[in-house]
Automatic annotation (TrEMBL):
Any one Gene Ontology cellular component term annotated for this protein: cytoplasm
Binding residues for iminosuccinate: 32, 49, 120-122, 137, 205-207, 222
Organism: Methanolobus profundi
Compartment(s) where it occurs, according to its Swiss-Prot or TrEMBL record: Cytoplasm
Family label: Belongs to the quinolinate synthase family. Type 2 subfamily.
Known EC number: 2.5.1.72
Protein name listed in UniProt: Quinolinate synthase
Keywords (A to Z) from UniProt: 4Fe-4S, Cytoplasm, Iron, Iron-sulfur, Metal-binding, Pyridine nucleotide biosynthesis, Transferase
Pfam families registered for this protein in UniProt: NadA (PF02445)
Example of a GO biological process term: 'de novo' NAD+ biosynthetic process from L-aspartate
Entry keyword Flavoprotein: no
Protein's pathway: Cofactor biosynthesis; NAD(+) biosynthesis; quinolinate from iminoaspartate: step 1/1
């Protein structure tokens, strides 16, 4: 008797239905590098926050299905207000983005009126609207260096702010937010991983603590990591970021070996999107993400200033 893997059949059927609905709705699926493998595999474009922001701004589509977290879908809605932007997992929030509010930022601006405000894209639309310019982990140093002001309020990630401060003479004043996935990685994790894999390069994300960054061979955004491993002559890598990226690395550079720096580096909200939710979202065209125009107009300026930096 031949065994039929019903799970595989269901996944294939879902993929076929998703492809059909995509065509019907003139839709494009964007997925962050941290998404689960089956979602990455169905996506039209995979990338980090900067790549997906650029893609969202220039897509020829009526519907954007954003497989990521809330602030990413908000950014797409701000950049493409004429499009229908869907977030398949309505509860896929970013805990770090919730660590700073627009009200708290206004207080900071009053306290330091001569400082520019740089906000990480991992923030709400309301916080972006109160900021001078946005940044991502891949361009944060370049963004800060582009400013005329000598003082910079940097929200919300203290670790990324500290990393940026290494490469600029400007006074960087970081907020006390953090990514729980990266902040929980410890120097001991690096030491133990090197013992287990002595020939492997250690790559970490700049959202990690300074003492972890100090022990790494290289510090990159997620797409920076992917570019590095594909170009490097080295064959083994210890990956210090959310473990979902390893799926893409294995697809892009299958002849190399990848080890997570920490098995605990899992963003539970990034994992809330699956094929069933992508299908449900395309079928119903919900949950839709919108941003009030009075907020979007101001936030758009901060995002566009970032995108204008090459």
């Amino acid at each position: 008797m031949t065994y039929i893997d019903r799970t595989t059949l269901d996944a294939k059927a879902l993929k076929d239905k998703i492809l059909k609905l995509k065509e019907e709705h003139s839709a494009v699926i964007l997925a962050h590098n941290y998404q689960i493998g089956e979602v990455q595999d169905i996506a039209d474009f995979i990338g980090d926050s900067l790549e997906l922001a650029r893609k969202a701004a220039n897509l020829d589509a009526d519907v954007i299905v954003f497989c990521g977290v809330d602030f990413m879908a908000e950014t797409a809605a701000i950049l493409s207000p004429e499009k229908t932007v869907l977030l398949p997992a309505a509860d896929a929030n970013c805990p770090m983005a919730e660590m700073i509010t627009a009200g708290e930022l206004r207080v900071l601006k009053e306290r330091f009126p001569d400082a520019a405000v740089v906000c990480y894209v991992n923030t709400s639309a309301e916080v972006k609207a109160e900021s001078d310019i946005c940044c991502t982990s891949s361009n944060a140093v370049k963004v800060v260096e582009s400013l005329d002001e000598d003082k910079v309020i940097f929200v919300p990630d203290r670790n990324l702010g500290s990393y940026v401060a290494r490469f600029t003479d400007k006074q960087v004043m970081p907020w006390e937010g953090f990514c729980f996935v990266h902040d929980r990685i410890t120097p001991e994790d690096v030491i133990n991983a090197r013992k287990l894999h002595p020939g492997a390069e250690v790559l970490v994300h700049p959202e990690c603590r300074s003492e972890v960054v100090d022990l790494a061979d290289h510090v990159y955004s997620t797409s920076g990591m992917i570019e590095h491993v594909c170009k490097s002559e080295n064959k083994e890598f210890i990956i210090g970021t959310e473990v979902g990226i390893i799926h893409r690395m294995k697809n892009d550079c299958p002849d190399k070996l990848y080890y997570p720096l920490s098995d605990n580096a899992v963003c539970i909200t990034m994992k809330r999107t699956d094929l069933q939710k992508v299908y449900n979202s395309l079928e119903s065209l919900t949950p839709r993400v919108t941003v009030p125009e009075e907020v979007a107009e101001k936030a758009r300026l901060a995002i566009q200033r970032m995108l204008d930096i090459k």
